[in-house]
């Protein structure tokens, strides 16, 4: 029997229309455009309207990803959504709602919770499903309405994040040169209290149900972990940094991205940056960044992408992916 590989057949994204600049935060917080830009690299981000749910954002990106893969909703075998800001607290899953909106019926649909590493985890799951011949065409979506879990009185967190979605279709191929070459994912719950969203009323002294982060500690762990993770996956596959067409890191903080890029000797031309435009969109960050270079005409068929992400949990992961769109 011929061996099957998983292939990234399409990429798409969606950004809500409400643009929020750093200066907008000056009106409500003790902060400034200079303070935010210097520490994060973020200049603007986009927030969904109160009427928009995470599934609405996921729908827009998912619909375009299916179209760009030259497929129909009937061709999709399973829908998987990564999000830290689901439509509902526990059920139904955002994937179920998104699949319904897309017209994908009587097919499996489920969410995963891996925070900012969500899209890397999605690639790993999709790759396993394809190679085991469980499914042929998989729709994966990172979608976030992070604004729904932010404390807009906390200047240390609310200026960092934005809303958006990114989607991809992963399909079966017999050509390894067009495949998701390798994916590494990992986690360590020891650091759970550094980045988390408490459940309302879980304990008598629970903080409000908004994202909580100890920024300096997260920064240190992220730089160290991401750099080592990228070194490991490159060495494991005998690939040199200069062989990578685009390094697409999670878009959390420009200082983290620059630190990792310098440690690994990537050129500015290799590093994809969107954090200045969209802020940290968590699980949507990496697919949105890939779509940015795709729509700009920079990403070509056969290009090798190196993806890397770190998020609450802590979770982290990296992937080497040949684009086959």
From TrEMBL:
Recorded catalytic activity of this chain's protein: malonyl-[ACP] + acetyl-CoA + H(+) = 3-oxobutanoyl-[ACP] + CO2 + CoA
InterPro entries assigned to the protein according to its UniProt record, in alphabetical order: ACP_syn_III_C, ACP_syn_III_N, FabH, Thiolase-like
SUPFAM superfamilies with a match to the protein in the record: Thiolase-like
All copies of domain Beta-ketoacyl-[acyl-carrier-protein] synthase III C-terminal, residue ranges: 234-321
EC number: 2.3.1.180
Residues annotated as catalytic: 116, 250, 280
All copies of domain Beta-ketoacyl-[acyl-carrier-protein] synthase III N-terminal, residue ranges: 110-189
GO molecular function terms listed in the Swiss-Prot or TrEMBL record: 3-oxoacyl-[acyl-carrier-protein] synthase activity; beta-ketoacyl-acyl-carrier-protein synthase III activity
Involved pathway(s): Lipid metabolism; fatty acid biosynthesis
Gene Ontology biological process terms, A to Z: fatty acid biosynthetic process; secondary metabolite biosynthetic process
Segments for region (ACP-binding): 251-255
Xref: Pfam families: ACP_syn_III, ACP_syn_III_C
Domain of life: Bacteria
Cellular compartments annotated: Cytoplasm
Coiled-coil parts of chain: none
Keywords noted in UniProt: Acyltransferase, Cytoplasm, Fatty acid biosynthesis, Fatty acid metabolism, Lipid biosynthesis, Lipid metabolism, Multifunctional enzyme, Transferase
GO CC annotation: cytoplasm
Keyword Acyltransferase attributed: yes
Entry comment, domain topic: The last Arg residue of the ACP-binding site is essential for the weak association between ACP/AcpP and FabH.
Function of the molecule: Catalyzes the condensation reaction of fatty acid synthesis by the addition to an acyl acceptor of two carbons from malonyl-ACP. Catalyzes the first condensation reaction which initiates fatty acid synthesis and may therefore play a role in governing the total rate of fatty acid production. Possesses both acetoacetyl-ACP synthase and acetyl transacylase activities. Its substrate specificity determines the biosynthesis of branched-chain and/or straight-chain of fatty acids.
Family (UniProt): Belongs to the thiolase-like superfamily. FabH family.
Subunit structure: Homodimer.
Name of this chain's protein: Beta-ketoacyl-[acyl-carrier-protein] synthase III
